[in-house]
Specification:
22 strands, 268 residues, 42% strand, five-stranded mixed β-sheet
Length: 268
């Protein structure tokens, strides 16, 4: 609550004023007045969250002693804290393993829950290997993969190295050509290869590598694209009047990249 001054005025008249106390409204929401930070796996967060119980206007309801609960449930430490003067102060929250998590805070009478995204870094501090956290999929020859591969830098125990900025390179096995962003710098320990394109309809292996780190691989089936053309793969020959050609023509139905569309039953 606070006291405000209202002023009333009109041209040519003496103005008037009024003191007014604005009361805090009922509990409506939660507000994050201090976000969790400096999170290392298995260790108490260096900065613990503080959550205010607020009215609809964002004012702290200082009379509230509601209990605030933090999730996910596998947080360690005291996940239920009662508010003092309208503020719940957490003191010993921690999480393991390393990775990105979403903290949620809730109490009775408020909806939806208050959320905060938090990166929990590895305690080992030594990058060791690459890991395919999101495998590629939806590959059609000549088009970008519908699901882009995401690669993580991890320590030897498999924990995300959220501080890593390594450059990751991708190569493809097979007879086709891989194009798009084949080198990507990690952000928060992850490299996302959006826009990769492969030209040949075949099974390939994508290899992701970075200096001094153990590479990671992903298998991917690349399908042919839409039918766009015909290709004469065997020419007719040995033609004699009234007799069948000794060598009959063979025509292949292909996509724009020259891949045979084996599913096609078009008449030619």
């Amino acid at each position: 609550a606070e006291t405000i001054t209202l002023s009333y005025s009109a041209s040519g008249l003496t103005s008037g004023t009024q003191q007014l106390t604005v009361a805090v409204g009922p509990v409506k929401q939660l507000g994050l007045i201090q976000a969790a930070a400096s999170a290392v796996e298995g260790q108490v967060f260096g900065t613990q969250p503080r959550v205010a119980i607020q009215d609809a206007g964002g004012n702290t309801v200082t009379s509230s002693t509601l209990e605030v609960t933090a999730v996910p449930a596998d947080l360690s430490g005291t996940r239920k804290v009662r508010a003092v003067n309208g503020v719940a102060t957490f003191e010993d929250l921690a999480f393991s393993p390393a990775g990105q998590i979403t903290l949620e805070f809730s109490t009775s009478g408020t909806n939806p829950a208050l959320q905060q995204t938090l990166l929990v870094t590895s305690a080992n501090g030594q990058a060791s290997k690459l890991h395919v956290s999101t495998p590629p999929s939806g590959a059609t020859a000549g088009s970008a993969f519908t699901t882009a591969p995401v690669i993580e830098v991890q320590d030897a125990a498999g924990s995300l190295m959220a501080s890593a900025t390594d450059v990751v390179t991708v190569t493809a096995s097979g007879s086709g050509t891989l194009s798009g962003p084949t080198q990507v710098a990690c952000s928060s320990g992850r490299a996302t290869f959006a826009g990769l394109v492969y030209t040949k309809a075949e099974q390939i292996t994508l290899t992701f590598s970075s200096s001094l780190l153990t590479p990671a691989t992903a298998q991917l089936a690349v399908d042919p694209g839409a039918v766009t053309k015909l290709e004469l793969t065997t020419a007719a020959s040995g033609a004699k009047g009234g007799a069948a050609f000794s060598t009959q023509p063979v025509v292949t139905i292909q996509d724009a990249q020259g891949n045979t569309v084996t599913s096609s039953s078009s008449n030619t």
